[in-house]
TrEMBL record:
The UBC core domain, residue ranges: 1-167
Quaternary organization: Interacts with AUP1 (via C-terminus); the interaction recruits UBE2G2 to lipid droplets. Interacts with ubiquitin ligases AMFR/gp78 and RNF139/TRC8; recruitment to lipid droplets by AUP1 facilitates interaction of UBE2G2 with AMFR and RNF139, leading to sterol-induced ubiquitination of 3-hydroxy-3-methylglutaryl coenzyme A reductase and its subsequent proteasomal degradation.
Name recorded for this polypeptide: Ubiquitin-conjugating enzyme E2 G2
GO biological process per UniProt: ERAD pathway
Length: 168
């Protein structure tokens, strides 16, 4: 039952991706292959007028069998240095947190996952996160500290990551 609900929710996105990789303003995405709706690749473009501008950052979205009741997980597969991205690439953002109340009290339940969210909404939230990190609930302590205390050095590291993302 839950798997069929997941398939129903993902099917429209999947069908669009079969004919052409879905292209939105800030990202490209689609299933990794036709047999598996549950693993998607995404390319996220760095937002304009930020230290990540011009970067192209690959990521994977992994959908659970009970999607859309539970959120997908997202992980960048390239090097990233950002307050809300763990060193292993996992993304820490409210929209990807399970529904309900936050035991730490940082997020309201309205900010967390709900089944009405879409793949596009997730990726737009991640693009916004790249532009405006939340350094109060950092997944990468070093990046959070540098974002607050030495923005020039943070921007320098981000620019190096952008260059690597472009193969320069």
């Amino acid at each position: 039952m839950l798997t069929s609900l997941c398939t129903l929710k993902l099917e429209p996105y999947f069908q669009a991706a079969l004919s052409i990789v879905s292209c939105f303003f800030f990202f490209l995405l689609g299933p990794m292959n036709e047999e598996n709706f549950f693993e998607w690749e995404a390319l996220i473009m760095g937002p304009e007028d930020t230290c990540f501008e011009y970067g192209v950052f690959p990521a994977i979205l992994s959908f659970p069998l009970d999607y859309p009741l539970s959120p997908p997980k997202m992980r960048f597969t390239c090097e990233m240095f950002h307050p809300n991205i763990y060193p292993d690439g996992r993304v820490c953002i409210s929209i990807l947190h399970a529904p309900g109340d936050d035991p730490m009290g940082y997020e309201s339940s309205a900010e967390r996952w709900s089944p009405v969210q879409s793949v596009e909404k997730i990726l737009l939230s991640v693009v916004s996160m790249l532009a405006e990190p939340n350094d109060e609930s950092g997944a990468n302590v070093d990046a959070s500290k540098m974002w607050r205390e030495d923005r020039e050095q943070f921007n320098k590291i981000a620019k190096q990551i952008v260059q690597k993302s472009l193969g320069l």
